[in-house]
Amino acid sequence: MFEIIQAAGWPIWPLLLASVIAVALIIERSVSLRRARVVPAGLLDKVLVDLRSHGASAEMINRVAAHSPLGRVLAAGLRNIGASRDVMKESIEETGRAVVHELERFLTTLGTIASVAPLLGLFGTVIGMIEIFASQGISGANTAQLAHGISLALYATGFGLVIAIPTMIFWRHFRRLIDDFVIDMEQQAIKLVEVAQGDRRG
């Protein structure tokens, strides 16, 4: 493997760097975007029980806000529990946008790697082909040497695709996961507003 990397030349090093970054981001996002961490089950029910029992105290609101991203959204509504429905919704929406922005952290980088990796691979192949044909003598090309050189040059394109395909899969997976989280948080926030405004019991 190391011999192949050496033979492929310097254009493959940016691909190796991109692969390391992509793996690191995939691991980090996989840990950060767990459902139990973002939208923990049962949090809204506990908040509603506390709200009915003790009201929206500052200590309870701070505890909910520190719990999870969903907690931050619910806490925004709790801070405006005595205000009108529109004020509660506006506060929740503002906090929700900030939470979504944090959930989408590093996804732009991951998507960029997925898009650029094939181009870097193609660039490496083009550089390799130029070097191969430039090294051939005027008297004629050595067919075996030429075929071997072309195969080495194509490693860069192959390596670029190997990086891009799984990176794109994870990028799309994370995007879909965040969309699901957003819908879940919206539904729970609406329920909190309706209970706080007396439109429903829970």
Automatic annotation (TrEMBL):
Ranges of residues in domain MotA/TolQ/ExbB proton channel: 66-186
GO CC aspect terms: plasma membrane
Keywords noted in UniProt: Cell membrane, Membrane, Protein transport, Transmembrane, Transmembrane helix, Transport
Annotated GO biological process: protein import
Bilayer topology: Multi-pass membrane protein
Signal peptide positions on this chain: none
Protein family membership: Belongs to the exbB/tolQ family.
Protein name: Conserved hypothetical biopolymer transport protein ExbB
Source species of the chain: Azoarcus sp. (strain BH72)
